[in-house]
Structure to design on (728 residues):
């Protein structure tokens, strides 16, 4: 199903999932995920390792095909045929997904070409400025710190101005200062023009910028609430009980 | 035992069981019939003597292997399309059976060749093509355990299963033309299209028997793999219940 | 910049994506020169090993020249192909490629094109090296060599790029690539050696027509299969 301009502006639900499953033979990664995410929201997905958070995000990004259930992202069904959808989704993984031997500028130029973006120079400049990496644009990514690489990955994800931005455990390997910069950036990005989903196993980061929080365990979403309504102490206890005995 | 979303696999279970129940006794009967035909009915070939009778099993094994690899090809394509583990099961089983029959060809060839022209191996067109096929599908089988978690191995192997099969006619042609540049006095091939009728009948009987045998093997092997999947699933369920207690 | 306007304006074409990938690979190789140095040195080593193992006299060299060349190309080529997805693997860039709206087939063709250029450069260096080491002048035969080298390299690189994408994501990848690639590319090898041999012997191209037809078929199979199937290697 193609995604037209009309869908773009009228789309009120960014993600709609019903009974989403991902299994191969006997291994089950997602065991019936239900989700309704309005456009413009910031959702944090918390859960222990092995809960299926990465699997879910990859499915939303179109990198993974569901074994069962329904999924609509920005009004379209993700999959190999949904190229137009992929042009509107961005993913920042905990792996950099950048070419270490090329410079920041060369990396962004490549991805701009890969996405078929018009006026790449202006976009690259704007993206680099946003993550405060303009000064290092000519340096090879190999010389970047983990935090800077992360910021460049975000710059890359912003190049094509996606309507849905996904962050998979972005705090991995970052020191507290870098986490702070990341959280500020996330707060900036949360301006209503895009939907954001963040997965993390760190409750403190998870609760800071989100509108909504969901808990994922054993391949399903077991709890959902508005972030404002959450008392951190009580939530920690609830989280522990929901994820007890997780592998 | 059913799991939601395993519908195709349930249907496949039933089909496999039916295929197995039909082909296995028929294959047994067919093998006995083929043995009779080969030993008693088919005449001895003038030049090569009784050793020539390996030809029937040799050619039938080659045929059975091509059949199996075709099943792998079709199942691989279906797996990539539908991403249903059932097709992957079938592709894997057929590939294993195909490799077994290939091995039979490669082993029976030397046993045929040594008594007749004194060498264990000749770069005969059929033997050479079979050796190449054997290597391709052994690669297919080796790919799976080395590719990591279950799904990737299935996908990669499916690509190999498709490309490998499509390559077969090209391998055939290139090896045959290459062979004509180095002609040997006698070729191991069948006695050309001019097979005496008794030999033709024997060959046909053997071909049918081996076809049934291949179908039976594939069905049984696929069932075994399916049972392994179910066992693993039950184990996981038990462990999950253990963990949450 | 409104989000809606961006979604409409950006569109990547097959050719655009292919060129982007090819340029990126060439730029990476220019920066590091890893593949180039490895393949050229290895090809020279292969020639050396052949020389000492077979110790061919002049007559033998004339008979085996085509084979010697293609052995060097195949083994050096495999080394280069094995490295073609290393950057993607080490930095998890395959996901980034799969994420983009670019057609996976375009990514495949772009990568194959880059690999073809790397192999062509290797061949361009190995040819004079062979001529010198084995005292086998290639000057007159050279025009006739272009066709088999081109067609054979395209076929080898086509299958090789597809299998390299597979082997790079598996354990024992150094073994996996030769195991997968060599049996499948035997038709390419046989045909290329035959056509090259005919050219080196100074005979007419028309003698090799059936082999050329076969080689073109192989090239078509691997390129089409690679373009259609590559997407399945990227997604989950």
């Amino acid at each position: 199903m193609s995604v037209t301009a009309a869908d773009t502006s009228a789309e009120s639900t960014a993600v709609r999932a019903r009974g989403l499953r991902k299994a191969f033979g006997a291994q089950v990664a997602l065991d019936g995920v239900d989700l309704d995410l309005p456009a413009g929201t910031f959702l944090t997905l918390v859960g222990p390792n092995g809960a299926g958070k990465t699997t879910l995000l990859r499915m939303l990004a179109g990198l993974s095909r569901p074994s069962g259930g329904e999924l609509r992202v920005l009004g379209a069904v993700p999959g190999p045929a949904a190229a137009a959808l992929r042009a509107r989704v961005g993913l920042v993984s905990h792996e950099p997904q950048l070419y270490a031997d090329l410079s920041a500028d060369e990396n962004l130029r490549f991805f701009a070409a890969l996405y078929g973006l018009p006026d790449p120079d202006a976009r690259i400049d704007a993206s680099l400025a946003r993550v405060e990496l303009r000064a290092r644009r000519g340096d090879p990514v190999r010389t970047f710190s983990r935090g800077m690489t992360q910021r460049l990955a975000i710059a890359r994800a912003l190049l094509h101005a996606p309507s849905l931005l996904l962050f998979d455990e972005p705090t991995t390997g970052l020191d507290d200062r870098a986490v702070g910069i990341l959280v500020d950036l996330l707060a900036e990005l949360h301006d209503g023009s895009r939907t954001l989903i963040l997965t993390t196993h760190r409750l403190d980061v998870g609760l800071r910028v989100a509108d909504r929080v969901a808990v994922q365990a054993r391949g399903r979403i077991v709890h959902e609430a508005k972030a404002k309504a959450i008392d951190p102490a009580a939530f920690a206890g609830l989280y522990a009980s929901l994820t007890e005995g997780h592998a | 035992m059913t799991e939601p979303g395993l519908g195709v696999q349930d249907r496949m279970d039933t089909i496999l069981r039916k295929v197995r129940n039909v082909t296995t006794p028929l294959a047994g009967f067919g093998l006995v019939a083929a043995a009779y035909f080969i030993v008693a009915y088919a005449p001895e070939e003038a030049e090569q003597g009784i050793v020539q009778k390996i030809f029937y099993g040799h050619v039938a094994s080659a045929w059975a292997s091509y059949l199996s690899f075709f099943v792998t090809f079709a199942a691989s394509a279906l797996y990539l399309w539908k991403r249903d583990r059932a097709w992957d099961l079938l592709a894997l089983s057929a590939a294993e059976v195909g490799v077994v029959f290939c091995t039979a060809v490669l082993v029976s060839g030397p046993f045929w060749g040594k008594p007749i022209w004194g060498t264990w191996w000749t770069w005969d067109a059929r033997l050479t093509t079979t050796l190449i096929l054997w290597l391709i599908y052994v690669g297919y089988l080796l790919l799976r355990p080395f590719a990591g978690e279950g799904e990737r191995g299935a996908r990669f192997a499916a690509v190999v299963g498709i490309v490998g099969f499509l390559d077969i006619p090209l391998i055939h042609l290139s090896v045959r033309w290459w062979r004509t540049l180095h002609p040997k006095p006698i070729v191991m091939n069948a006695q050309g299209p001019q097979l005496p009728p008794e030999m033709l009948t024997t060959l046909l009987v053997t071909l049918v028997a081996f076809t049934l045998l291949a179908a039976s093997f594939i069905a049984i092997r696929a069932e075994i793999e399916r049972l392994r999947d179910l066992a693993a699933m039950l184990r996981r369920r038990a462990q999950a219940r253990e963990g949450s207690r | 910049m409104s989000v809606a306007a961006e979604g409409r304006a950006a569109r990547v074409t097959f050719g655009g994506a292919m060129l982007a990938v090819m340029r990126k690979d060439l730029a990476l190789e220019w920066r590091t020169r890893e593949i180039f140095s490895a393949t050229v040195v290895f090809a020279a080593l292969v020639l050396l090993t052949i020389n000492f193992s077979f110790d061919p006299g002049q007559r033998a060299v004339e008979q085996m020249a085509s084979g010697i060349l293609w052995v060097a190309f195949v083994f050096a080529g495999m080394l280069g192909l094995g490295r073609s997805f290393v950057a993607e693997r080490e930095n998890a860039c395959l996901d980034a490629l799969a994420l983009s709206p670019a057609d996976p087939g375009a990514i495949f063709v772009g990568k194959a094109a880059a690999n073809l250029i790397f192999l062509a450069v290797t061949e361009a260096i190995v040819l004079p090296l062979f001529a010198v080491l084995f005292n086998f002048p290639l000057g007159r035969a050279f025009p006739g060599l272009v066709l088999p080298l081109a067609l054979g390299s395209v076929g080898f690189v086509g299958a090789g790029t597809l299998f390299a994408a597979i082997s790079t994501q598996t354990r024992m990848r150094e073994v996996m690539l030769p195991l997968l690639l060599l049996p499948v590319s035997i038709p390419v090898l046989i045909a290329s050696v035959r056509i090259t041999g005919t050219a080196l012997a100074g005979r007419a191209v028309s003698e090799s027509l059936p082999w050329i037809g076969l080689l073109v078929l192989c090239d078509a199979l691997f390129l089409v299969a690679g373009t259609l199937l590559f997407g399945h290697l990227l997604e989950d």
